[in-house]
Design a protein that fits this description.
It contains 18 helices and 19 strands. With 508 residues, the protein is α+β, with helices and mostly antiparallel strands. The chain folds into three domains: 125 residues, D-Maltodextrin-Binding Protein, domain 2 (3-Layer(aba) Sandwich); 117 residues, Dipeptide-binding Protein, Domain 1 (Dipeptide-binding Protein, domain 1, Alpha-Beta Complex); 218 residues, Dipeptide-binding Protein, domain 3 (Roll). Helix 10 packs antiparallel against helix 12 and helix 17 packs antiparallel against helix 18. 46% of the residues are buried.
Length: 508
């Protein structure tokens, strides 16, 4: 059989099996993600595709409304006792999916398993998010105190996504089973089945404290090919997909069974550069790379205008953003000049990696622009999954840089992008391998260690000036969350990039 052709019988069989527009049962909501996270344990990964599943299975102490305001969740109220202690009152009568009642012990255990690696669990990649928390004290069955080692201005932001897990259950089944086959939370849907790289099946938690979810069944399909996601949306195989390509937005907007919901979000794109070795150990080469890419052309031609160029990785909606720091302009002659001054008059060969399959056309266009000024790029495109996760979470010595995008854990603060991307401590995630900017760690620590907001703003302005000059990354643009949605479902994109599907409703 030739590649690209199918026997007639096989084609007819595929057509017969393809779901029609009304194939989804009315009580079932099916969404498409490009991949699944390696675990369903909400504390043991940092991937957006996993967070979007976790928030529908687990609750945190706080929630954020569609208008991005804090709302009570497992905590009904909170207040600062002093600069380093916050008091949280817990909601009474909340039940986990197995029927156990939520206790203060569960809340303390959830924090301890992230903050005390080796004592309660293997090390959490989210440790850096909450490492400022020194301890969680149980005051009484309905009250806890969260104590930080110094003033921690991001505490409430971080607690919007810090899922609470059941202590007795996790200790009984073990960490591995909890993440693979027995995850239990208090959220609107409970776990039923996971076929890795195929689908996750969840059922409504009828005892949910907010009330019954509007859909009885929630299915999360892993579909790595965007064209396949679009086809499934148009034919009724899925009800919702993310990151609709700009050229397909008009078609889905006017489709008989689909519509599009879009809104600006925090997610920022960058090419993180390995400053440890040539050629990006030289500032002039890193700056040349920033001048080489026409960000406005990419935003307009490949993103349908649904993006905004940024001067650094700090996004305009985030606290600490400094509009006085201006983006690198598109200037190929300047890029060539800097490259020559750096000792590469004949150019240099580099390898860049990515697993952002939704944005492959952007990656390839940027690689071509870099190549045209003499930074000759060999692109390696990975499928999102275990091999990429292993590569991305290691030293990455086979790479000169990685193109990816970062959503801040939906935290509207500069720290949520600066610390993971540029801090060199283990909690720094990418920065620990790539970034080598003298004095930057100290500035990032200062910004997250005071409640004095004007002082924090000054610190973040200084950081943005430093990283703009040192260019530890190619600074690109923010994007919109652009959802393709089946008309049988009523839902709207959120500014925090969550898929909070408790708000999704069957269209009457």
């Amino acid at each position: 059989m030739r590649h690209g052709s199918l026997p007639l019988l096989a084609v007819l069989l595929l057509l017969a099996l393809a779901p029609s527009a009304d194939a989804q049962p009315k009580d079932t909501l099916t969404i498409a993600l490009v991949a699944h996270a390696p675990t369903l344990d909400p504390h043991m990964h940092f991937e957006r595709v996993g967070i979007l599943v976790n928030i529908n299975m687990f609750d945190s102490l706080l929630h954020r409304s569609a208008k991005l305001a804090y709302e009570p969740a497992l905590a009904t109220s909170w207040k600062a006792i002093n600069e380093t202690t916050w008091e949280f009152k817990l909601r009474k009568g909340v039940r986990f999916h197995n029927g156990d009642t939520l206790t203060a012990e569960d809340v303390k255990f959830s924090f301890d398993r992230v903050l005390e690696p080796g004592k309660t669990t293997k090390k959490s990649p989210q440790y850096g998010n909450v490492r400022a928390i020194k301890e969680v004290r149980i005051v009484d069955p309905d009250t806890i105190h969260v104590v930080t080692d110094k003033p921690f201005p991001l505490l409430l932001e971080r607690l919007v996504f810090f899922p609470i897990v059941p202590k007795k259950h996790v200790e009984k089944v073990g960490d591995d089973a909890f993440g693979a086959s027995a995850p239990i939370g208090t959220g609107p849907w409970k776990f039923v089945e996971w076929k890795r790289d195929q689908y996750i099946r969840l059922d409504a938690h009828d005892g949910y404290w907010r009330g019954k979810p509007p859909f009885k069944h929630l299915i999360v399909r892993a579909i790595p090919e965007i064209a396949t996601e679009v086809a499934e949306l148009k034919t009724g195989g899925v009800d919702l997909m993310r990151n609709v390509p700009a050229d397909l937005v008009p078609e889905l907007k006017t489709g008989p069974q689909t519509y599009v919901s879009s809104t600006p979000i925090l997610r920022v794109h960058q090419i993180e550069l390995d400053m440890r070795s040539a050629p990006f150990d030289k500032k002039l080469v890193r700056q040349a790379a920033n001048y080489a890419i026409d960000k406005q052309a990419i935003i307009q031609k490949l993103m349908g205008g649904l993006g905004q160029q940024v001067a650094t990785v700090v996004q305009p909606p985030a606290f600490g953003f400094d509009a006085e720091v201006k983006p690198y302009p598109y200037d190929p002659p300047k890029a060539r000049e800097l490259l020559a001054r750096a000792g590469y008059p004949n150019g240099v060969d580099v390898t860049l990696h990515s697993a952002s399959v939704e944005f492959r056309p952007l990656f390839e266009a940027m690689a071509q622009m870099l190549t045209e000024v003499g930074i000759r790029v060999n692109t390696r495109m990975w499928d999102p999954g275990p091999a990429w996760n292993k590569f991305f979470q290691s030293e990455g010595k086979a790479t000169n840089g990685i193109y990816f995008n970062w959503g801040n854990y939906s935290v509207f603060d500069a720290d949520a992008v600066l610390h993971p991307l540029f801090h060199t401590e283990p909690g720094g995630w990418i920065g620990k391998w790539y970034t080598r900017v003298e004095g930057l760690d100290k500035l990032i620590d200062e910004g997250r260690s005071t409640l004095n907001q004007p002082q924090r703003k000054r610190t973040y302005s200084q950081i943005q000036r430093v990283i703009h000059e040192e260019a530890p990354a190619i600074f690109l643009f923010t994007q919109y969350d652009t959802l393709g949605i089946a008309k049988r479902v009523e839902y709207a994109a959120r500014g925090d990039e969550w898929l909070w599907l408790f708000d999704a409703k069957p269209r009457r």
